[in-house]
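Reopening: phospholipase A2 still failing for me.
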Amino acid sequence: MAAATDPVRRRRGGLERRMLGDPGRSRVSPALAFVLLVVLSSSFVRGGAAANPEVRCSRSCVAQNCNSIGIRYGKFCGVGWTGCPGEKPCDELDGCCKAHDECVEQKGLMSVKCHEKFKNCIRKVKKSGKDGFSEECPYETAIPTMIQGMDMAILFSHFWRNDLYPGQPLLLPKILPTADLPFVKMALVTQYPSDVQAILLVRRSFAFATPIVKSHT
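Support: Ran it again with your exact input. Result attached.
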């Protein structure tokens, strides 16, 4: 009875019903599955391709879609793109992607440590001042694209895992897509005790995330 009369819970329950529909439905909704599939696969979490022997692997260096999340760079960088066993990276940046593939194979696609190690690796490549193998896709273009994608992967890894709230049950985020051209806004409303919310502003093929933490007063 106390839970039913708690004003904070009543407000939260009413808000969730208005925004997300019946809260009694399965937490893994089709919208959630679709958006996570698009965002995560577009955020350079490539380990699944490396771990699946049925996925076509690369034996040649490529440079495609260098300024979008659909980038394919070298033999190991890109969505669903990885080098064949025994292949060497095309350059140092491609080597960072190879190392990331190997890391997530061992620790899982949601490993923030693997994603952070990848970002540190490509920052070192950038500071080295060296040129990559491709003139069509220079480091100045490829590296910022990869960093943006990996930042999204890190954001969703935090939401998906329970590291932020040790001891709390893992609850999947609910996603509410709303149309607001030229931007598409997606509000992720989690059910964690601290009411963490995030607004993703997606413009064209890039996304920028602003986490908002609301405290109870």
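The chain has a mean pLDDT of 65. If you still see a failure, please send the error message rather than a screenshot.
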